[in-house]
Amino acid sequence: MSHFKFNKKALMGAALLATAPTVKADGTGRTSAEISKSQRGITHLTLEEAPLENITTCVPGKSMIDLTGDFRYLPDKLAVVLNPFETDSVKMTFVVSHMTAMAYDRMLFLTYSQQLSVSPQIPTPKSINKFRLDLESLEIIGIYKVSSFGMTAQTETRIWAEPALRIKWEFDVKLNTLEILTMMNNGNDTVHLQAALIKKSDFERGKWDSMILSEVDTIQFLPNECPQTMEQEGIQVRVTEICADKEGIIGSCRPNTKSE
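Above: the chain's sequence. Below: its structure in token form.
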């Protein structure tokens, strides 16, 4: 994780500017300079999760038949089972796509909040996805410096005419079971996650409105086992358990693959 200091007060100050007349934002967080065209890595990021080690995940409406290979992305809404008598930590991989090659340094945030804001608290006119996390309960999972990687763009060829270059960043995160159980005992069993990318010079100046953001993903923490059903698009659907054992082998949950 980066050593850079995150100034939450400055971020909340930026939220106050959202109500200023000069911003001209409506209730959706859009401004008069809003960008509406979707361009991966330019106007939005993508955040994905995958099980890594010693973890049981509950996925609505997914079948193991649909998940092939050793690395499996999970849907935007999932649950994680925690059993403090079996393990004191579980591991997940977070993947942020699609950062484009740039000749300047940037800062990448992986953040979560226990609540969502009714409307965006910070205007982000350069981003299709809006800042939906509640600032009062905002926490940082990681702040990372993304050094410039000015790869030369591919010139047009006979069958390929897309010069943009993008990369993915993967972060293996160890979740502290006891800390999360304390949060659950306080009545908070759900976190909402969002990734943000900002030019390093804007980060240092507190110019938060230049961020581009990922969609919001949701993780619910459950004790002991997955439920039989979870909500998906307004209806209850059957749940599939997906486990990764302590060696990182992923598969359907059997007695010898659940968290140990």
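The longest helix spans residues 8-17.
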